[in-house]
Amino acid sequence: MTVLHQEHSAHAHTHGPACGHRAMVHHDHLDYVHDGHLHREHSGHWDECEPGEHVAHSGHAHVHGDGCGHPAVAHGDHVDYVHEGHRHAAHEDHWDDH
């Protein structure tokens, strides 16, 4: 999975433990859910943390949804489910890794 370096410009808000936005572990960093997208701190600024390509999560038998036990996060026009340090999003007949 490729993480693009897309700076979130004019982001005056500083994320942290008391900022009010959900924090989630994503690979080797923390993402903060804010306005339907995810921010990560990078070299003194905030980047968008979005996948750079379509990555299907193969062999994922678990079906996410209300009551599945994984946190749901609004992300753009869909819902991601936080699972094992990454996010799953429904796509056609499979789940994508975000």
UniProtKB/TrEMBL annotation:
Biased composition (Basic and acidic residues): 1-10
Region (Disordered): 1-20, 50-71
Descriptive protein name: Threonine dehydratase
The organism of origin for this protein: Streptomyces lavendulocolor
